[in-house]
Every structure is written in structure tokens, then in C-alpha cells.
Amino acid sequence: MGDLQPLSEFNHAKSNQISDTSEPSNERRIEQAPLLLDDGEAVAVWDLFGFNWRLVAAAAGVLNAGLVTTEFYIQPTGYLIAFAVAALYWRFGRLNAESATRRNPRISYSLIATAQMITVLAIMTSLTYIATSINLPLMDASLLAWDRALGFDFLIYLDYVNDHPRFLAVLAFAYTSITWQILGIIIVLPLAGHYRRTGEAICAFALALIVTTCISVLVPAIGVYGELGLTASDFPTFQPQGYYDTLRDAPLAAAANWHLSNDGKCYACPRSKYQPSSVRTFTRIAPASLVVLCSDDEAT
Length: 300
Prior knowledge:
Blueprint: H1 7-32, H2 40-44, H3 46-69, H4 76-98, H5 105-132, H6 140-149, H7 154-163, H8 165-176, H9 178-191, H10 195-218, H11 224-227, H12 241-254, E1 259-260, E2 266-267, H13 277-299
Antiparallel strand pairs: 1-2
């Protein structure tokens, strides 16, 4: 028989064995995030950005399924530009994160956040058009009735806006500020070191678009202007472009008759003719901002 080992020594050896076996798993977890920095938040939030990519991939899968099961056909030019720009941002972000000499999470997360936002906009905007093609009965009349039951009278608000053009300017600025808010999320927040808030904001943005798309399928509507029989003379101080765009696009999407090619195929495409303005904005801003961020990276 071997020598008996004291219980205290056995427990000590066992605890060392457990700690030795746990260390590789922790190392493997850290190695999954290339941001091997002293900044603990930068490493911990890498998984959140990974979740965002999985969310985008799921939405892309639904988009592909919609293309297979409907008459829509994608004209690839707009998508190739958007995805190429997003891939460029992602690649430079990864290179910065993995660099041993120039690693800077403020730069890498800003680049990767931009890549995620461009991808989310391209996929989700297109998915809303396919969702419209389900073509359930419009709910404008019901929504108007519910508004009135809650005490909201659209005509009162319309008259107020017509009578107060300065207030209209404030509303218009607030409505169009979404582009600046998105730029703040993907550039200002990570440059300020708020990596987790950046990832959470992109995740919330994507989830909100998904929920909104589902609601638009179940409760489709174009706008109350037509339901009330309003004309342009009823709102001379502004132009409801969102309503006009929906009025133009929704019937086309419902009929799966977006853009006919010479061979008779139907095309649903991010607009050059139908490209979402948000995607156009980002594909224009992207190259310039990439140069600025990379220049900043070189300086650091």
C-alpha cells in the first residue's frame, strides 16, 4: 500500500489541480477577443458585438428566405457597395484589435460598430419591403378610430403645425436627426470609451427594427392622410415625404412589382432608384470617416 496522504495536503493539491484546469478555459475565452488590453470593458464587450453579428446573420437568413418564397429578386449593385464598405470597416477594425503595437479599442470598436450599422440598415430596410408584400388588409381606419378613442385628433395637430412654422422646423430637425444619432452611436460613443453602450445601442437598434417590421406585417398602414381625404392644400407649410414614399412603395411591394428588368424579372433593391436614404448616406460618409479613423490610428 502507498503512503497515506494527509487530508490537508490532498485538498491543497486538489485545489491546485482545479485552478490549473480552469486557467486554460479563461485563456481561451480571452483569446476569442483579440483586444488583449488592460481595458477590461473592451475585452468583456467583445461578446456583445459577436451577438450583434449573430442577430444580423439571423435577419439576413430571414431576408434570404423571403427572397426564395416571394417574387422579389435582388439587384446586387447597391448591396455589394454597402457590404463591401461594411467589410472594409470590419477588416480594419479587426486588424487594429489584433495589432500588437497599434491596438486601440476606441478605433477598432468605432470601425466595427460602423460595419454593423451599415449591415443592419441594408438588411433590415430591405426586409421591411418583403414584409409589406404579405399584403394583409390595411389598418388605417382602425388606427384612426383607436386614436380618436384615446382622444388624439390628427386634424388638430395638423392645424397647429400649419399655424406654427417655427415649431414645424423643430419637429423636422428632430425627425431628421436620426442620422446624427446613429453617427453618435458608432463614432462618438466608442471614441469616448463607452464600448458597452455602443454594442447595446446597436443591438437595441436592430431589435427595434425587427419588432417594427413584425408590427408592420400584422398592422399594415400607409398613413392617415388618405383616410381623412386630405390633399396638399390642407398642409401647405410642409410635405409629408414619409407618407408619399409609403404611398408609392407599398402597393408596388404588395404586388411584388418593384422594378421590372428587360427579361421580366422583378427587382427589389436598396435604392439607387429604391435605395434607402440611410444606406446612401453611410456609403458616402464611410470612406471619408474610415480615412480619418485610420489616420488617427497611425498617429497613435
